[in-house]
Amino acid sequence: MVDSVGIRRRLFATRSVDSLVADTAVEGQTLKRAVGPVQLTALGVGAVIGTGIFVVIGEGAALAGPGVILAFVLAGLACLFSALSYAELASSMPVSGSAYTYTYATLGELVAWIIGWDLILEYGVAVAAIAVGWGGNVNAFLDATFGVQLPAAISQSPPDGRFNLPAVAVVLLITALLALGVRESARANLVMVVVKLAVLIFFIVVACTAINTGNFTPLLPNGSDGVVSAAALIFFAFIGFDAVTTGSEEARNPARDLPIAIIGSLLICTVFYVLVSVGAIGIAGAGTLAGSDAPLAAALSDGAGITWAAAILAFGALVAITSVVLVILYGQTRIFFSMCRDGLLPRGLATLHPRFGTPAKLTVGLGLLISVLAALVPLSEIVRLTNIGTLFAFVLVNIGVLVLRRTRPDMPRPYRVPFAPVLPLLGIAFAVYLMIDLPGSTWLRFALWLLAGILIYAFYGYRHSRLRQQAPADPA
User: Fold this and answer.
1) Which domain of life does the protein's organism represent (predicted)?
2) Dihedral of alpha carbons 326, 444, 71, 74, sign
3) Of the candidates 230, 210, 233, 232, the residue with the CA atom closest to the CA atom of residue 220
4) Which listed residue, 33, 86, 93, 316, has the most CB atoms within 10 A of its CB?
């Protein structure tokens, strides 16, 4: 009978960094290194800039007033500390899987399974929810440009409609693109990123010509609490920069390119968010933004008198959301791929297509499942699980940096978090601070999802793990 110490050592046994990297060279499971720093940075920007700036800015203004500008800065700062930790681990371990892989090498298999299971939920729900938003933006674009709309029965998910056809269409289209190859997907994403940044630059330039400084007073009508509440909500607008790390195994020069892409994409998005929020408040005021479902279009229409801008912004939102679907679905397939390759999920799904070099079978399966969710399942409540799942991953990644600094001090680190352990500890503190502000119902659903995951691990993952079928693991 195995004693409690033995069980604990097995549950929290780690994979060595060398063995994780060696797995990337296994025949039939080796992803192509085909992506450079510009495309990786575009993946980060593509994942971040979406409905957050086109929609969430209005909800943030309702909580913080003009202080929504500070809320964007606070949310960006909370992400920056974690981005530095992601950059160190990604450059040191150029392996697909993001936080799942990093946790496997630092905190052990059980914790890695928990975060991997958490990321499956985070990315899957995010893709389905964003696809539903894409369907709504199709109607907004058609209405603003041509004065027509698709019937609600086929353009909205229940309970407002019967079947969300646009959401299904975009998920299946992106699934096909991802199955064809990472190079093709990255190029398509780069084009979409250029388009949506151009739309936001248009908004910023127009806003600069009509700013009313009176709209910025009082700056904090609801005090600092309003800013914090808005930041917890706006945090959703920053989710996605970590998706860059899921492409570690496909980066041509991961040691150099990944830190550039992770930190660069977050900084680019934060600058755009702050400039857009300043412009929107300056020309229309917080009240106008808070009372609109399309706050940027309302700002140009009511503040600058440009009524035709709604069509441009609707098109920009459509392109922005498409690129988010692409990058987040890409990230989920790579995390799932890593877990299958490690044996915690069926290893047969980790095989690559002989021609395209992608986990095509896995990609198509996930795409079909998510398209069903987007078409038929009401997602308004469980979308909040995306926030708590991301923050939980941030906590573990920052802890992972601290653990590896202690257990593997001589490990090559092409990029190192400056001022460690101070900045990783700040990353943990900011993430926990924002998690506390989430409602109790979100915590309950998150706990139930993790409980289901632990049961799957106990009855399948633990028994089939490669960690127990090959060489002895590193002690945790």
Assistant:
1) Bacteria
2) negative
3) 230
4) 86
**Between these two residues, 447 and 8, which has the higher pLDDT value?**
447
Task: Report pLDDT digits (tens) over 341-366.
Answer: 889 999 888 888 888 888 889 999 99
**How many CB atoms sit inside 10 A of residue 39's CB?**
24
Rounded Cα–Cα distance for residues 343 and 112 (Å) = 13
Contact present, 256 and 40 (Cβ < 8 Å): no
Output DSSP code: residue 401.
H
For residues 372 and 334, the answer to whether their CB atoms sit within 8 Å is no
**Helices 182-208 and 37-48, packing angle to 10 deg:** 60
Of 5, 21, 28, 19, the residue nearest 358 (C-alpha): 28
- What one-letter code names the amino acid at 345? L
C-alpha to C-alpha distance for 121 and 98, rounded to whole angstroms: 14
pLDDT band at 473 (very low <50, low <70, confident <90, very high): very low
Residue 358: DSSP 8-state: S
Contact 21, 249 (CB under 8 A): no
In which element (H, E) is residue 102 found? Answer: helix 99-106
Measured in whole angstroms, the distance separating CA 131 from the mean position of its chain's CA atoms is 14
User: What separation in angstroms does the CA of 360 have from each of 169, 348, 450, 468?
Assistant: 18, 12, 27, 28
Let me know how long the chain is.
476
Contact yes or no for 334/97 (Cβ under 8 A)? yes
Helix, strand, coil percentages (3-state) for the chain, rounded to 5, are 75, 0, 25
Residue tagged 């490669």 (tokens): 466
Could you tell me the CA-to-CA distances from 382 to 19, 90, 327, 353 in Å, in that order? Answer: 36, 29, 20, 33
Which alpha helices (DSSP H) does 65-216 contain, by range?
A: 68-92, 99-106, 109-146, 152-155, 165-180, 182-208
| Exposed / middle / buried, residue 381 (Cβ in 10 Å: 0-12, 13-18, 19+) | exposed
Beta carbons of 210 and 337 less than 8 angstroms apart: no
pLDDT of 126-164, one tens digit each?
Answer: 888 788 778 777 877 787 778 888 887 887 777 777 888
pLDDT digit string (tens) for 81-132? 999 999 998 888 888 778 888 888 888 898 899 988 988 887 888 888 788 7
At the top level of CATH, which class does the domain 36-468 belong to?
mainly alpha
Percent of the chain with pLDDT over 90: 21
The total of other beta-carbon atoms located within 10 Å of residue 299's CB is: 30
Report domain extents, the chain.
36-468
Decide: 56 and 231 in contact? Cβ < 8 Å: no
